[in-house]
Write a structure and sequence with these properties.
The complex is a heterodimer of chains A (about 120) and B (about 110). By secondary structure, chain A is mainly beta. Chain A has no helices and eleven strands. In chain A, strands 2, 4, 5, 6, 9, 10 and 11 form a seven-stranded mixed β-sheet that branches. Chain B is globular.
């Protein structure tokens, strides 16, 4: 049973550039949530995708955008990178379907460094 | 008041000790509660969901106190491998699928 996968594992970008991070959810899951985690902090919710639509959003600027594909995989895009965007980006998948289930399972994350 | 609050610790305990963490939440309409464990520079891993009646999984016991709006995690007979950060997670009110995370409590189990 494949767990949550993310790519790439590490990434170094320059201020002002754009980045795309990818996530494949756990087999059987239909919902993907993205988080940003700075060192020493808890994960900060960016947004959640279900049925290819953004369903919930945290307090992140429009520079952060996403997409979910018909196979439930997802992308996180960040434009005009700032030094403060350096963090571990975590993708979590869950099964919502017709019910309510919030147990989320995380991928290993993408560590983004902005120089 | 923060939506989810935890004592950051660190908690330093000897092997075999019993240790308990509390987490308070501000929204009385929250419905779902979880404890996650996170090792240094790794992703969070689901440890336990917390049910109204309380639940136990081996050495770990989780409880929910709705009246006082807190959840707790008890670890008995702690092992060196229990050293990690323990994150409390609560969903928003009602059907809100957004999960709100505490900053975590750091536990170090010493030989």
């Amino acid at each position: 049973d494949a767990g949550v996968t993310q790519s790439p594992t590490h990434l170094i970008k320059t201020r002002g550039q754009q980045v795309t991070l990818r996530c494949s959810p756990k087999s059987g899951h239909d919902t993907v949530s993205w988080y940003q985690q700075a060192l020493g902090q808890g994960p900060q919710f960016i947004f959640q995708y279900y049925e290819e639509e953004e369903r919930q959003r945290g307090n992140f600027p429009d520079r952060f955008s996403g997409h979910q594909f018909p196979n439930y995989s997802s992308e996180l895009n960040v434009n005009a990178l700032l030094l403060g965007d350096s963090a571990l980006y975590l993708c979590a998948s869950s099964l919502v379907g017709g019910g309510i289930s919030y147990e989320q399972y995380f991928g290993p994350g993408t560590r983004l460094t902005v120089t | 008041r923060k939506e989810v609050e935890q004592d950051p610790g660190p908690f330093n305990v000897p092997e075999g000790a019993t240790v308990a963490f509390n987490c308070t939440y501000s929204n009385s309409a929250s419905q779902s509660f979880f404890w996650y464990r996170q090792d240094c520079r790794k992703e969070p891993k689901l440890l336990m969901s917390v049910y109204s009646s309380g639940n136990e999984d081996g050495r770990f016991t989780a409880q929910l106190n709705r009246a006082s709006q807190y959840i707790s995690l008890l670890i008995r007979d702690s092992k060196l491998s229990d050293s990690a950060t323990y994150l409390c997670v609560v969903n928003g009110a009602g059907n809100n699928r957004k999960l709100i995370w505490g900053l975590g409590t750091s536990l170090a189990v010493n030989p």
